Every structure is written in structure tokens, then in C-alpha cells.
Amino acid sequence: MPSPTYVLGVNAFDHDVSACLLADGKPVVAIAKERLTRVKNDVGFYGDAVDYCLFAAGITLADVELVVRCSYLLPVTELEARLRRELQPEVFPAHERERAMASPLWEGQGSTRCVDVSHHLAHAYSAFACSPFERGAVLVADGVGSYRSDVLETVPDADDVPALARESESFYRFEGTNLTCLGKAWLEPTRGLVNDEFQEGQGLGALYSRVSSYIFGDWNKCGEVMGLAPYGRLAGEPLVRLEGDTLVLAPWPRAWDRPFVGGDDASWEASPDRAHWEDVARRVQHDTEEILLGRVRRLFEQTGERHLVMAGGVALNCVANGRIVREGPFDSVWVQPAAGDDGTALGAALYGWHQVLGRPERHELRSAALGLSYPQVSFERALAHRMLGVAANVRRAGNVAEETAELLAAGQVVGWLQGGCEMGPRALGQRSILADPRDPGMTDRVNARVKHRQAFRPFAPAILAEHARDWFEGVGESPFMLEAHPVREEKRELVPAIVHVDGTARVQTVHADRTPAFHALLEAFHRRTGVPVLLNTSFNLRGEPIVESPTEAVDTFLRTDLDALVLENDILLKRTWGRWLRRFHERRTRRG
């Protein structure tokens, strides 16, 4: 049997560095660098992510036919030439220089063919080329994309766009592997303070990031803004509107002069400005939803297509996505699980397969579980942790789904690791923290004692797909937890821990053929309780990446008030002594 043709995609240097490997056009492994280095949204050289993909596939770089790289900063080959002569620690830490410049991928100098792809083109391929549709429309929306001078596709009516304008939104039609650009919204060159130029741009993602900086002191807290929005009042004039196809931003309101200036969660929660921040979040979230609905209606008019696919950081806004599904004109909407910049590695690889190599074969992405499945020795090493003997009891499960469901139904909060990790920011039953959604106190408990995050942050429901319509309004297929829908009113009191303050929830529909172990667990919980739903959140502490290895899962288990940890077929139950050790460690950390 001939060896597969391998194509490697890379998102390089700035936030969410990642890599993805295709075998004969099918995604077989993908990873974000942050999962390996344990640095959230990690930047810099992409060697760790590439090595992980090659190791998982059991190949070397010499077996790869084509490498396609992407960075919104500059074409990667040009960027690496510039980084050779200057230090840019915010995108290329000094400790990586020697290893990076010795790599055969550096500046594309090795024997493996290496090409670059522009940012929104990579996003577009990540959305349509592994979608379940043969044809449709594509919407890409994010904070900032490539310079006009670096955009590879033909863009209608772009001759007068400045070379230093940058992509903000892109609109396409696709059929099979053919992609046609219908137009773009651009960020005109702006004046800024050092590196904040994109936040001052006239773009939807840029505006949302500006509000994130205002409320939380961090441009990359957009998910928190979305979660905060339902607590606020819809007041004041819109921040943004559409005039025809042109996005027009209003001046920043003069009364909005109370940015969060730093501190811990307690100081944020206790701030007298909190109600103001809630109102600002509500305003920007509402306006974002209205603009996106306007965009998809216009895209439907332009294309007449029945199906819509979406990518880019703005496509992670599950509240807006839910409205697009329920109120938009398209029959079907599909958002790939790594819609943010980590997913451009997938798009870069698919661009290489279809556009550079000219291969027509397409494969639907049905599961986000593209991480390495760890060998038994890794679990044995994790279970040999020096503190585990005093902190927990360990047993091999006879039926892991039934025994875990029993723990959950009894009120235990459980860490759950099965198979390879998910690609993207959502835990989908491979690296999850799970709890009983029937307990009204579970939201506060998991936020405060397990996740260590703000009390307003909601939790998502995972539900057996066959029961989803009975519990949520307007939901169809939502396997990647990227749509928020209203919880049916008669069901809300049954699952209060997953109902947000506005009556909605970010739904994950769970299918037996996509995540069989997780589906079996939900079935077991349903048999015990009559409720086909679990509270599902990512297996990490606030500010940390989702756990990758069994060893990291054990370490996080010991540092939190998790009651139990399931490592494939092993169940770890925390002892009272283990809880005391966790609290002692937490007190020492706070004093330090």
C-alpha cells in the first residue's frame, strides 16, 4: 500500500501558534503550541507543534510533501528573514532563536517544499474545505488579517485599497474545492500607541477587542465580554452600523472613561464600575449580533446559497452564531471548532492540498479530537505521581461510563480525559470537567473552587444529540459547542447550573459515532437521573491552557477541588488528606 501524501499546515509566531497534519487530505493530528509549553495563547517558533504532529503520525519531516505556513503579521518567509536580523520578543522569544534558525523550515530553506498563505484565505479553507457541504457561502471575521499587499486571492474592487490596509472581514462563495472571493472589509492604516493599532481600526473584531481591553485590561478576553453582556442594560447609541456594505464605527463615547486599570478578580468584582462595564458589554455584544445578521443576509442575497460556513475569531461568538442559526436566511450554518487563529494551521494545510497540489479529495471534519492518543506508559507515569498515594485512591473501572455517572449523580465534580485532545478552545468530551447540571449551586462551586474564575462566567451543557430539541429552542447540529440557544422554559429549573442569566446555554450535541466514550457517559447519566445533560467545561484552571497529557491532568486534579479524575479507564477519588494538601498549596501560592 503506498504511503499517504502528507501536508503540514502551520500558524506561526504571533498568538495561538499551531500545526496540523493532513494524510491524503484528511486531518489526522493538530495541536496548539500552548498545550505543549503551558503558556496561554503562546507565540514564537512553531517547532514544538510541528514535532508533536510528526511524532503522532510516526513520520519525519522528510515524509512531508508540502508545508504551508500562515501568519497575519507578514508572509512567514519574509517575517523569518526580518527576525534573523532583529529581536522581536513579543512574537519570537530570544531562547528560541538558536533552535529556530537551525530548523530546515526556517525561511523555507530545507528540502521540503514550503509556501506561505495569507490569513483570511487560511481561515476560509479551514471553514469550507472540511465542512459537510459541497457548496455554500463563507464568512470570515476576526480582529486583523493580512496586509492588502500580501493577500493572495483576487479581490473585486480592491484596486484603490491602500497596500497597508488589513483584512477585517472576507466574503466568499465555494463549490467543491473552488473558492471565489466576493469582497472584503478592510482596516485602513491607523495611528496607534506601539502595538495597539488594530484595536483602533474600523472593524468588528477590532471594536470587540477594544471593549475587552476597556473592561478587563486585556484585548483577548472577548469570551468574558460575551459572558458578561446579559447582565447589562442595552443603553446608549449603537457603537457600529452598516451603511450599505460599509461598516461605520461611532466615536468612542466620552462618558466611557472608566477602564479597568488592573488588579485581581476580587477588585474587579467589587469595583463600583462593574455595572457600567456590564452595560458596555451588552452594547457591543448586541451591536455585533446585529452587524453579523446584516452581513449574512447580504451574503445570502449575493450568493443564493443554502449553506453558510464561518471562521475567524468573531465566529467564536456563540451567542451571535445562535442568532444566525435561528434568524438568518441560510438553511444550515457550520463553524469549524478551531475558528480562531489556531485553526489557520488546518486551513493552511487544506489550502496546500487543494490549491497548491491540486487535489480534489475532501474530508468532512466530524470530530475535533485530533490530538495524540497517549500510550499506556504515559498513564502509568502519571499514576506514579509522588503525591497521588496520599491524595487519592486509584482503581481500574469495570464500566467507566456507569461508574463515572454514579459519581456525577452523587454531586461529584469530575475531571475527564479520554483519547486525543480537542483542536480549538472548547472541551468536547476529551479534556473536560464535568458536573451535575441539576444542582443550582454547582455553577458557583465550579467557578470558585475548581476553575478559580469570575462568578458571572457560565457553563455549557453537553446533551445527547437525540434529545437536544426537547431541551433547547432552535438547536440543530452543534457538535463543537459554538452556538448558544434558549433553554426551553419548562426545562430550566431541571438544569439550573447550565442556564445563563438570559435563559440561554452554549449547547454541545453529543453523537455516539463522534465521541463514543462521552456519549456512553451521558447515556449512563440519563438512565440514572432522567436528564440527558451534563455540565461540561474545559479541563484547566483560569489563565492556563487545557490539559494535554495524563500527567498534567493529575497535576491539575491535585491543585483543585475536583472530587475525582477519570483517566480513560482509571478512576482517581480524592481523599480528605488530598483536599487539605490542595488548600495548603493554594495558601502558599497566594503568600508567594
Describe the model.
By secondary structure, the protein is of the alpha/beta class. The protein has three domains: 6-117 and 345-356, 2-Layer Sandwich (Nucleotidyltransferase, domain 5); 131-335, Nucleotidyltransferase, domain 5 (2-Layer Sandwich); 376-591, Alpha-Beta Complex (DHBP synthase). It contains 19 helices and 21 strands. It has helices at 33-37, 47-57, 76-85, 97-101, 119-128, 204-216, 222-228, 265-270, 274-303, 318-327, 344-356, 376-383, 388-391, 400-409, 442-451, 468-471, 516-529, 550-558, 576-591, and strands at residues 6-11, 18-23, 26-32, 64-70, 113-116, 135-141, 166-175, 178-187, 240-243, 246-249, 307-311, 332-335, 392-396, 414-417, 431-435, 460-464, 483-486, 504-510, 533-538, 564-567, 570-574. The strands form four sheets. The protein has a nine-stranded mixed beta sheet, sandwiched between helices. The protein has a five-stranded mixed beta sheet with strand order 3-2-1-4-5. It has a five-stranded mixed beta sheet with strand order 8-7-6-11-12. α5 crosses α11, α6 packs antiparallel against α9 (274-303) and α9 packs across α10. The chain is globular and about 65 Å long. The termini are far apart.
Bulk shape = globular
Number of helices: 19
Q: What distance separates the N and C termini?
A: 58 Å
Strand tally: 21
Q: Within the largest sheet, what's the order of strands?
A: 13-21-20-14-15-19-16-18-17
By secondary-structure content and strand pairing, the structural class works out as: alpha/beta
Radius of gyration: 23 Å
- Provide the low-confidence segments as ranges: 588-592
